[in-house]
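Lay summary. Proteins are chains of building blocks that fold into shapes, and those shapes determine what they do. In this project we predict the shape from the chain. Here is one chain we studied, written as its sequence of building blocks.
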Amino acid sequence: MSSVRPGIYADDSITRRVSRENVLLLGGGRALLMQLAHPSVAAGVDEHSDFRVRPIRRFRRTIRMTMAIIFGDRNTAMAAARAVNRAHAGVNGAGYRAMDPDLLLWVHATLVDTSLVTYETFVGRLTNEDRETFYQESKIGGELLGIPMERFPRRLADFDDYVRDIVASGVVRVGPRALELSRQVLRPPITMLPGLAMIPFEVVTAGLLPAPLREQYGLAWGRGRQRTFRIAKRTVPRAVALTPPLLRVWPLPGHSVSLKALAAS
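And here is the predicted shape, written in a compact code that computers can read:
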């Protein structure tokens, strides 16, 4: 890891401040399930990857490329974006193509929305100005990944309406394929880790998901799980606040990342 060099985001940007929090990994299940709820995304993932066997691999790749775009210098960010676009270029099937701007916008939206929701749940509240700036800055990375600038909702309020409306309209709705793939998200086949160990992650994922999708995935949400989630919302931010930066964030402020370093991690 080297000292920070100019990237597409400034080191003091709200994008870097939010995205470097390790606790945001708790939102990974939410983002994946929201993506898979779009039938075309689920089809592309299922037909063009080994997600059913190695679900963690796709998640790690998403994290690596996202971190490279956000925290890498300009050359690293651009190289990561080109790598993602090359991978997506060959993902086509019956009724879908990964480079469809509508699909790209939905996947992008799940990551942006999940980052904000997870940060405010487990780190702390953001000001309205910071939330708006975070959204506006997200368009920079989204455009690098093939989303035309005119496709983005103009303001954060419009973006929130987009996320809510696309779920309510049924464009994004959990189908049989998404249900099957969700098992790999919530109970991934990790060696030496029993399925029961993933229950806390499942509770957090259920609590963070929009209620309509939580219901469509059939995730249990009785009083016991709701109470557990409320406790997590109280205790995790306290733990995060007491965690030293060396453990709490990555990369540390003032440092940039490279694709080589990410690949080795």
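What the prediction tells us: Residues 2-264 form one domain.
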